[in-house]
Amino acid sequence: MLSIINFYQGSVDNIGQVGIVLISHSVKIAEGTKELVQQVMKDVTVEVAGGTDEGEIGTSIDKILNAINKANKDDGVLLLYDIGSAKMNAEMAVEMTEVDDVELIEAPLVEGAYVAAVESGMGKEKHEIIEAVTQSFSKERD
């Protein structure tokens, strides 16, 4: 029997998981957020799209599309982004991708990724994860 600690460290197998894509203007922010999230949920698919294709500060639609494809395990993909043009490029990537079940979440990048990964690791469906993330950062929380 799995302990609660093992469960929260991502040791649960054979359950569907929604993939997560972290979009940031900075490779370091994207990679650091992934590292933080995977300290708790090791088995959740988290992909990054940080920086431009030239390794500069900015975002890349091609990197986002590639990350969506890698994160897609047929249970859906959620995108979280940092600021400004990252959202615009994420929206364009959602329109361009051949993956059917991709959605952008409005939440802080680090905190939202953490909540999304925990929920995904628990085998929650995409709509349940979105609800948990958005409720976590709603100004109207009880």
Description:
The chain is of the alpha/beta class and 142 residues long. 46% of the residues lie in helices and 13% in strands. The chain is built from six helices and four strands. The protein has helices at residues 4-8, 27-40, 61-71, 85-96, 109-121, 126-136; strands at 19-24, 46-50, 77-81, 102-104. The protein has a four-stranded parallel β-sheet with strand order 2-1-3-4, sandwiched between helices. The longest helix has 14 residues, at 27-40.
What is the gyration radius calculated from CA atoms? 14 Å
Whole-number mean pLDDT: 88
Shape label? globular
Strand content: 5-15%
Report the end-to-end length measured between terminal Cα atoms: 35 Å
- Placed side by side, the strands forming the largest sheet appear as 2-1-3-4
Order of helices and strands: HEHEHEHEHH
- Low-pLDDT stretches: 1-14
Query: What structural class do you assign from the helix and strand content?
Result: alpha/beta
Tell me the total number of β-strands: 4
Q: Count of helices? A: 6
Fraction in helix: 40-55%
Major sheet characteristics: 4 strands, parallel
Compile the SSE list and pairings.
Elements: H1 4-8, E1 19-24, H2 27-40, E2 46-50, H3 61-71, E3 77-81, H4 85-96, E4 102-104, H5 109-121, H6 126-136
In a nutshell, what does this entry contain?
46% of the residues lie in helices and 13% in strands.
Keywords:
single chain, 4 strands, 13% strand, 142 residues, 4-stranded parallel β-sheet, 6 helices, alpha/beta, 46% helix
